[in-house]
Amino acid sequence: MAQNLQGKVALVTGASRGIGRATALALASEGAAIVVNYASSSSAAAEVVSQIETNGGRAIALKANVANSDEVDQLIAKTMEKFGRIDVLVNNAGITRDTLLLRMKLEDWQAVIDLNLTGVFLCTRAASKIMLKQKSGRIINITSVAGQMGNAGQSNYSASKAGVIGFTKTVARELAPRAITVNAVAPGFITTDMTDGLKSDPILQMIPLARYGQPEEVAGMIQFLASSPAAAYITGQIFNVDGGMVMA
Ligand code: NAP
After folding, report:
1. pTM recorded for the entire structure
2. Would the pLDDT of 234 be above 70?
3. Residue whose CA is closest, atom 8 of ligand 1?
């Protein structure tokens, strides 16, 4: 297989588990050195690093709460110290705090917006400074079908993910003159810790392909956008990997 990211560096936020983990492995298979960011699962992050190394790749695990501006600055500084460049940023870290609007506490709202939206802003602002100097880069933001069609019980999450879509389109326009592409991937219902315990017949009936997705299926789209020469002319777009849940 062609290794399109040989000599390149990819930072994946929330890469200890789920979609981020699958993305880290997929980008490593393209030859990129990987920064495996995580918030608290240090042994899971170390396992991702060791799997990449076993496959002959290079990786480092870096703990940082990407909702925190100082920790993001540290994350970027340590990435530069270790690998000297950033070619790919995947803004994947995300949480849910689901409850109906009338029961939602301000802290449930704030925690989700802080990580899922402000975290994307902080990481993109910091990494794009480096990409602007390099005059190249690929940024992939993970949004959700919930940001496109809404989902009862997820007003905080849907708002954060809809925000990511608007952010993606605006930043794509701002960074395009320096050949930096910015796209978003919108997963549907993917089997990870986040959706553990949420599977139900009514959800399955909303999926035309009649099954839940796997993290590797989302990672495949991210890998294409991050590494393929064929993706160089694609920016400001939202790609659904959702079994057909949303058909625009
Ligand atoms: P997951 O299995 O729950 O994993 C979440 C990841 O985010 C973990 O690596 C976690 O690190 C990390 N994380 C959590 N808080 C963080 C913080 N403050 N700073 C840095 N990292 C943090 O989630 P997932 O299902 O793979 O979801 C990944 C992304 O896809 C999210 O943005 C989610 O909204 C989106 N998405 C998921 C689905 C789905 O069906 N699963 C659907 C649509 C969109 P620790 O291990 O250290 O906690």
Report:
1. 0.99
2. yes
3. 14
